[in-house]
Amino acid sequence: MLDFYRRFIPNAAEIQRILYDLVKGKKKRDKSTIDWSEAAVQAFQTCKNSIAQAAVLAHPNSEAKLLLVVDASNTGIAGTLQQIYLKNTQPFALFSRKLTPAESRYSTYDRELLAVYSSVKHFRHFPEGRDFIIYTDHKPLTFAFQQTGDKTSPR
Q1: 4, 17, 41, 117, 153 from 81: Cα distances, Å
Q2: pLDDT in tens for each of the 155 residues of the chain?
Q3: Which of 17, 86, 149, 155 is 20 to 30 Å from 103 at the Cα level?
Q4: What is the layout of strands, in order, in the sheet containing 76-85?
Q5: Is 70 exposed, middle or buried (0-12, 13-18, 19+ CB in 10 A)?
Q6: Burial call 87-99: b when 16+ CB within 10 Å, e when fewer
Q7: Which residues belong to the signal peptide in this entry (predicted)?
Q8: What is the pTM of this model?
């Protein structure tokens, strides 16, 4: 159930990271024990509360202007698809995921760019064929889209 509702929970990857780390490398029906620490109990309680208080999401409106708000941390990336309708910003879809060990070693610039790429890819059916705005808190990334191809990173 938690996996299904993760798309409606802001920062789900960060909240669930401890729980995922507990079962990483385990197989289904594995009889080995899990080290259920106090941090794991707290993460579990946070997950339960976040499902109970999931963000109220709006229904997509084809007339509204689309915004994609993205962010990256050292452990995960996230994006929220929002619409501006009647001068109000309304979220209607959320995305987050944990970074792989290799991705967590990316530079800040590359992690933020990965957040943009992954969010656009995840929400591709909403903005397809429409103009939309991408918001990021990483200023150098805004200049990347204004540069010519020979000055940018090969990634």
Answers
A1: 18, 22, 31, 13, 26
A2: 576 567 667 788 888 888 888 888 888 777 888 888 999 999 999 988 887 776 677 888 888 999 999 999 999 999 999 998 888 888 888 899 999 999 999 999 999 999 999 999 999 998 888 899 999 888 887 777 677 666 656 66
A3: 149
A4: 88-98, 76-85, 65-72, 132-135
A5: buried
A6: eeebbbbbbbbbb
A7: none
A8: 0.66
**Residue bearing tokens 């929220």:** 80
